Amino acid sequence: MDKKSLLRVIYAKYNELDSVKKHVKDETTIAVINGKQETLDDIQKLLESSYISD
Fold first, then answer.
1. pLDDT tens across 2-48, in order?
2. Nearest-5° Cα angle at 18, 16 to 24
3. Which domain of life is it from (predicted)?
């Protein structure tokens, strides 16, 4: 899988989690979702950085 495809998967998963978060009322669950989204952000930044080439 190339970098562009991986970024698409990350964007899709982030948006999926964002949609789920809109329907959840439990603060603990929302915190877990936020943590997962932060991890996806970190992976995205890593992929977009010069450390990983195509």
1. 888 999 999 999 999 999 999 999 999 999 999 999 999 999 998 88
2. 105
3. Bacteria
Token representation of residue 3: 């970098």
Rounded to the nearest 5°, which phi and psi values hold at 15?
-65, -35
Quickly state the pLDDT bin for 49 (edges 50, 70, 90).
confident
List, in order, residues 6 or more apart from 47 with CB less than 8 Å away: 3, 6, 7, 10
3 state SS of 52: coil
Rounded to two decimals, the pTM is 0.83
Residue 33: Cβ-neighbour burial (10 angstroms; 0-12, 13-18, 19+): middle
Phi, psi dihedrals of residue 25, rounded to the nearest 5°: -105, -20
